[in-house]
UniProtKB/TrEMBL annotation:
Pfam families named in the record: DUF1989
Domain DUF1989 as annotated: residue spans: 8-179
Top-rank taxon: Bacteria
Identification of the protein by name: DUF1989 domain-containing protein
Naturally occurring in which organism (per UniProt): Paenibacillus algorifonticola
Signal peptide: none
InterPro entries, alphabetized: DUF1989, UAAP1
Length: 242
């Protein structure tokens, strides 16, 4: 499995790009305590995008790990999680705002500190949306890779500080052409006083063909298979292979 492309996203950094169907996207935390907020869109129609409520409801889950599929608002499989060294990624916590970043880590601005200023998730994601022809109106729920948030019996949400060790990775498989938007900024429920400085490596490889009868993600639940079938049907009707 030869690497096709790689990039390190530094702490506070952002990135977006189109990744074609049938790729493996491996995210690796280069130090402990990483968090990368991610949004997903269909590269063929940016109106189709990751749907957090349907993804969680269909799979009867409140966190993401191997076997789970990120579903679009058209009921299609966008990416599946084929490998996961952590066992828990956060789809609930959202992203940081400018106000929260200033309050928690101290006010900074680009005019004084240039690239040393502390970015927020909302600003990073908005910049990448604009680069891809969208706007702040297209902000939506994110997946926070490498973070764990649990809820107690009172419904309060708790961030697990020591969840992500250095070198932990998660690997996604693209089931359609996707626009991936990433912000390497803190989880908003991470209450530590120091702004995390954890670079994250993103690598892209070619994936093997999906064995539809044996694949773990396809057959994880009946709802998963239906989402895959919706994607396969879409590919056939637009001229791809069944």
């Amino acid at each position: 499995m030869g690497e096709e492309w790689s990039k390190t996203i530094e702490a506070g950094g952002k990135w977006s790009g189109v990744i074609g169907r049938g790729k493996l996207v491996c995210l690796t935390a280069l130090d402990s305590g990483a968090n990368v907020s991610a949004m997903l869109f269909s590269a063929r129609d940016l109106n189709e995008r990751y749907n957090m409520p349907d993804t969680l409801k269909a799979q009867h889950i409140s966190h993401l790990t191997k076997g789970n599929v990120l579903m679009s608002d058209n009921g299609r499989a966008m990416v599946s999680i084929v490998e996961d060294e952590l066992g828990w990624h956060d789809p609930l916590g959202g992203y940081t705002s400018r106000e929260l970043t200033d309050e928690r880590y101290g006010a900074t601005n680009y005019q004084e500190l240039r690239n040393g200023w502390l970015r927020s998730g909302q600003e990073n994601l908005t910049v990448e949306l604009v680069r891809n022809g969208m706007s702040v109106r297209d902000l939506m729920p994110v997946v926070n890779w490498f973070s764990k948030i649990s809820c107690d019996e009172q419904g309060d949400m708790h961030y697990a500080e020591n969840h992500c060790p250095a070198g932990a990775s998660v690997t996604l498989r693209t089931e359609m052409d996707v626009l991936l938007v990433l912000s390497n900024t803190p989880n908003p429920l991470d209450a530590r006083g120091a702004y995390p400085s954890v670079p994250v490596l993103i690598e892209v490889f070619a994936a093997d063909a999906v064995d539809r009868e044996r694949d773990y993600c396809v057959n994880y639940r009946a709802e998963n298979r239906r989402a895959f079938e919706n994607t396969w049907e879409y590919d056939v009707l637009r001229g791809g292979e069944w």
